[in-house]
Amino acid sequence: xxHLILLGDSIFDxxxxxxxxxxxxxxxxxNLSHNWMASLLAVDGDTTSDVxxxxxxxxxxxxxxxxxxxxxxxxxxxxxxxxxxxxxxxALVALNRIKNDFQNNYTALLSELATMDIALMVCxxxxxxxxxxxxxxxxxxxxxxxxxxxxxxxxxxxxxLRLICTDPGDYSALSPIEPSSQGxxxxxxxxxxxxxxxxxxxxxxxxxx
Length: 209
Description:
A six-stranded parallel β-sheet has the order 2-1-3-4-5-6, with helices on both faces. The chain has 209 residues and is of the alpha/beta class. The protein has a single domain (2-208), classed as SGNH hydrolase (Rossmann fold, 3-Layer(aba) Sandwich), CATH 3.40.50.1110. α1 links the parallel β1 (2-8) and β2 (36-40). α5 runs parallel beside α6. The radius of gyration is 17 Å and the shape is globular. It has seven helices and six strands. Helix content is 42%, strand content 12%.
């Protein structure tokens, strides 16, 4: 029996935001075949640093992990992104500091996961949130650059949520930064398809959508 665990934030732990339909974990379970089971350890509001605590709750029979985190790290930087700068160079220095902080935290998390020797897939941060200003979409690119670069360095597969949740209806009416049941259904189908298809023994970074 394969046991898939969802780690991270409210991209997976979205039950509060989907009164109109099932949450992501239930949709993932519906897409899995009989020889798979799935559990949710992701926590709404968690950042990259918080995932370390989620790992203390891993069951002994886990075989696959999917990690979706970084959105709350980005939200925590909004105030810094809105700070005044006297030059483009000064702004870039500030952006580089934000990127380095996230990279340090994300790298530490992936290093911890690597010691567990469990099949791992990571997710990018989606960027088609309704009403998201273009400058913040650009800033999200820094976080996604880190995720993809670190995954490539470790030969990890990537589920690119930017290519999956592209429609306004994919986002919750209760909170536009969370997936709706529609978005969750698309995410779950792509996630399960990628997990089943990918050869984790062979390794190699591959982008799935």
